[in-house]
Structure formats: structure tokens, C-alpha cells
Design goal:
Length: about 200
Amino acid sequence: MNKDNPQHMTRATLLERVRLQHDEKSWEEFVFYYRHFIYIIARRLNLRHHDAEEITQAVLFKLWNKLPEFDYDKTSRFRSWLYLVTKNTVRDFCRKQSRKTELQDQASHSELWDLGKQISEHQIEEIAEKEWENYIYNMALENIAPSFSEKIISIFKRLAAGSLPKQLGEELDIPANTIAVYKKRVMTKLKDEVARLKRELS
């Protein structure tokens, strides 16, 4: 693993650079890793694509200003703080939209109004935690994919989607035990990569 590659720099180091130096290069790297996750949370909160993009930009703007104040240490979990910033941004957005509906069409933003009133911090963290697990899994699979042939990765994805090894083997004319070997090889590397990403990004 190339330690000079930004993809493999520990996130603690990245957070420190963004927090202490506030430099553009570090910020671009930070956005690369976290932007899509913020967007996913917003979408899972039933926001439309355009609104989710607006939320993402607003959260990133807040983070740009607030990260220098974030006290990172081994007992802190950056993700929890990110949840809080995202949650508050979504609620501010919902309140703003609900005020608009008083002058416009009340029904057009009713879902956002309900979200702003009803969703709890616990619910947001549940959604975010689930999406984080999916996000890490997909990133890990993408990272390890170059280590295997396209055929093996394709087989693994189909198995993960629910295909049975025996049926898949018959379809591809590959022995079932070979399918099992492929799956084990990918799973071993995938678990290691998931663990690494969790250490670095959590």
C-alpha cells in the first residue's frame, strides 16, 4: 500500500490538516471522501435530488467554517459530529420551506414540513449509521476490485445480490466449489478493507 497516496492517508491526519491548516488541497480531499455520504443522508430523509444537493453544499459550507473548531481525539467520533451538523441543516431547510408554503402551496412541501417536525435525532442517526455501513462496503469493494478479474467481481456481486452458487456455476459453466473459492477470496480482502476504512473514516 502506497502511504503517499492520498487515498490511503488516515482520515485523522486529514481532519487535522483541514482543522489546523484549512488549506484548499486538504479540503478538496475531505470533500472527495465525505460529500457523497452527506448527499446520501439527505436523500434518505426524503429530500429531492435538487434539495439534497442544496443540503450537501450547505453542510460542506458549515464544515469549512466549523472544522477548525472541531477537537479531534481518539475518543471523538467525527461521524457523530457530522450527523449533528447534517441533521441541523436539514431541519433549518425544512423550517425555511415550511415558511414558504404559508405564502405558496401548503401541500407542495408537506413532506418536508412533517420531516422537520417529526424526525428525531435517534432516527437520523439510525438512517445515517445504516447508510454509512453501505457507503463503506461499496467504497471497500470498489477499492479491492482491481485486485481481481472482472469475472470474479461480477460473480461476487451476483452472489451478494442473492444468486445461488450452484445455479450461478451452471449458468457460467464453473464448478460450484470454484465459485465458493472466488467468494472466499473476495470476502477476505473485502473484510480487511472495510476494517481499514472504518478505522480511518470513523
